[in-house]
Amino acid sequence: MTTTASTPAPLADVSREARLTLAVTSLAGLAVFLDTTALFVAFPDIVATFDMVAPAQLSWVLNAYTIVVAALLVPAGKIADRLGHKRVFIFGSALFTIASMACGLAPSAGILVAFRVVQAIGAAILIPSSLALLLRTLPPARIPFAVAIWGASGDHCVTGVQTCALPIWALGPTLGAVLVDAASWRWVFFINLPIGLFTVLAGRRILNESKDETAILPAPIGVVLIAAAAGLVSLGLVQSESWGWADSRTIGAIVGGFVVLGLFVAHQRSTSAPALNLELFAIRNFSWGNAATFAFGTAFTAMFLSSILFLTEIWGYSILRAGFAVAPGPLLVAVLAPFMGNLAGRIGQRPLLLGGGATFAIGGLWRLVFLDGTPHFVTAYLPSVLFTGVGVAMCLPQLSSVVAQSLPPNRLGVGGGSNQAIRQFGGTLGVALTIAFIATPTSLAEALSHFDLVWWLLIIGGVLTSTLSIPLMTRRTPG
Prior knowledge:
By secondary structure, the protein is an all-alpha fold.
């Protein structure tokens, strides 16, 4: 294909340093995202391994990870700004890799959850530093496209780097299913080891250090408060099935979570070393972009987890078959995300977010109308996967890029971390609501009605994403 001055080839006008940085940081993000999606597939096998532990309790294998990642992303971004993005990125990658090995060797559910927390610390450290490293090497016109690749953690071969991450990302659920079927869920963690080893070694050679000496390290109390708030709300939602929605423990946990959240906001306003700079929310695109990120993160995570549970529990699919069944969605995202990022550079992110949220909601509506107890993959399930896949490709990377472009240069680490933290908090809520809604049905009809609640969550999340994107001010980028 011939390129012109007005339509440059993707990343053709970007330095070799930027392309190499994109390759390394995207690969690190790939390991984090691959672990998350594959673990959704592996979750039923984890439940079977630790069959003496209730599924609601085992959900903390998922929720403990997302809560810790969300709570630490913002302070980790500040630490990266202060100590150096390369140094922090290398340390986070190494910690994530070592913890992955420990998770795979865990002999009990409690130890697995504990090492998932350590793994989450590594992920929280490497995510904002990787984004800051990338953004500091890019010209403004290339940010939407490159962040689309970084956000999707996969692309075609990047020119001059030959990093073909797309097949791995797109087949993450299928790869997880193959590993579980051939061996066990433990190999979902072991697969991170070669990726982490390469990221650490290549990062030491390729990445250039950058830092902000004026960044102030956050006070620990702020980190504790935001983690406690998310933990209490998640506890109330997850235990609602066994405690009851009207039980004082359920109400107390959820209300207590919001009270602690209020204390966190008050503390951030009064402290000289905040974990989250609240003044960033005065930036229009930062505040509305993060609100849309939270809504979409909730719906996206609920969609992924509920898909596996529906296919295995309602349609009786094996883990392997369920992994292949959900693969068209991630594959479509990996194919479309770079194109959507390039398109966002020409027309702005807002049109894509408006259409993407609506498309995602249509996928949820399709499930609500057509999914029942009789397996009809092609007519009932596949169309919904394609709708949600297109919605994810249009929304998820654009939410990251619209927030990133709104940030001042000296707040790239903390600002990028804030956006990813809010997405993780949304993911925590999505997992908690899915587990709470599905519960333990006593009949097929009851099970289907429980899943209908999750399909409504997808619809509402998509509509909210579009609605919250309306106030965004985005424009096409020259060139």
